[in-house]
What we know:
Elements: H1 2-17, E1 22-28, H2 36-42, H3 45-48, E2 51-57, H4 61-70, E3 75-79, H5 80-88, E4 93-102, E5 106-110, E6 124-127, H6 132-143, E7 152-155, H7 158-166, E8 172-176, H8 179-182, E9 190-194, E10 203-209, H9 210-215, H10 219-236, H11 238-249, H12 253-260, E11 263-265, H13 268-274, H14 281-294, H15 311-316
Parallel strand pairs: 1-2, 1-3, 6-7, 6-8
Antiparallel strand pairs: 3-10, 4-10, 4-11, 5-8, 5-9
Amino acid sequence: MHKILIALCLALTATCSFAADTPVTVAHATWVGYGPLHIAKELGYFKEQGLDVNLTIIEDESQYAAALASGNIDGLGNVIDREVIHFAKGTPETVIFAMDESTGGDGVVAAGGIKTVADLKGRTVALDKSSTSYFFFLSILEKNGVKEDEVNIQEMGASDAGAAFVAGKVDAAVTWEPWLTNAGQREGGHVLISSREMPGTIVDVFVMNDNFMAKHPEAPAKMARAWFKAIEWYKANPAKGDEIMAKAFGLSAAEVADMAKGVTFKGAAENLAFVKPGQGLYAVADRAIRFWKEKGIIEKDVTAADFVTDKYVVEGAK
């Protein structure tokens, strides 16, 4: 009788131990702000939560946006102002938590004669209207009382914009590193304003497909919990964390460390303070909604509260 009971216990234990983890496919572009996802995977934090997370890098926004909309991926790291557009155009998604915020990694470089944002009036500014650079620039103009039509925008990618500025082809450019540092290669070139002076503007978030969440309602809070643990570890072990992220991105640890200087990662405490209804992340999303409606980029009447929630931040922080 005792042998039978022992056999049953062993069988039950084996069954439980081999229970399959929930598979989650997550995409992101090559950016240090998404790097802690790889830390969470490398250190087994997803596994601890019963998640089998597959991380894939997709650089093209149209591709990863389509993948999330179709359910080919379950989660995505991206800037909140672009996810506003995707949601308004029909992607079934929910913002689970904030990942990071640019605090000096993005900026506007300008020629020597341009000392203030108001001095951009009548000048040519290079930027990418299909990226968060546009939202960043619109936020800067609004804060400084300058209208978009008072500036001559020349569209090009952020890196091309930085190169065009250094070459003297435009008066200013909305770009990121290394072009912020390289601005001085042009006589009089300087950083006019950076994301450090524009808090709550360029914010990366983790979103999940609503259909996936309906099938796996426990997954969002578990993703948040693993992310929070990864951020806590990275803050205590930056050099080791840079090495893990560098391996995932095909970069050097030094390059990742340099990128991370202009970023503030958001762990549990930062999310609890930032993801609050009516303020913080909600306010950033509502600003983006207003801008994109004014520009005719979106038509649907939506609010941040329609797809941003603090539920999983609260649950994940427990």
